[in-house]
């Protein structure tokens, strides 16, 4: 099981609390995680990645094992600690302002 932590605004949108656990078939990548999230919580479609381009929304970041994975290719395998469930994939709302 892969563990995913969502930011509060996405948890509210999906009406979930706490971590999401996903059973991923095949390689665990950012794309497969978001595919599984959107399948289990259809209201998240378009909230994490653009409907058309499939690119990550600009104010969301992906972190795992203390690393920013936001600029990795969507099909890059996630770290082993995420795949084993030892560490969660963090989807974090970026902070902007001036």
Description:
The protein is an alpha+beta fold. It contains three helices and five strands, in the order βαβαββαβ. The chain has helices at residues 8-14, 30-40, 80-83, and strands spanning 2-5, 20-22, 60-64, 67-68, 89-93. It has a five-stranded mixed beta sheet with strand order 2-1-5-3-4, with helices on one face. A hairpin with a 2-residue loop joins strand 3 and strand 4. The longest helix is centred in the middle third of the chain and has 11 residues, at 30-40. The termini are far apart. The mean pLDDT is 93.
Low-confidence stretches are none
The average pLDDT score comes to 93
**Please, what is the oligomeric state?**
single chain
General shape: globular
Largest sheet: 5 strands, mixed
The structural class is alpha+beta
């Amino acid at each position: 099981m892969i563990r995913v932590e969502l930011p509060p605004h996405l948890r509210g949108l999906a009406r979930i609390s706490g971590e999401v656990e996903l059973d991923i078939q095949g390689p665990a990548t950012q794309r497969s995680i978001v595919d599984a999230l959107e399948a289990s919580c259809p209201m998240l479609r378009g909230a994490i990645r653009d409907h058309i381009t499939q690119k990550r929304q600009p104010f969301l970041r992906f972190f795992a094992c203390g690393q920013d994975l936001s600029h990795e290719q969507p099909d890059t395998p996630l770290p082993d600690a995420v795949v084993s469930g030892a560490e969660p994939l963090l989807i974090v709302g970026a902070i902007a302002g001036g």
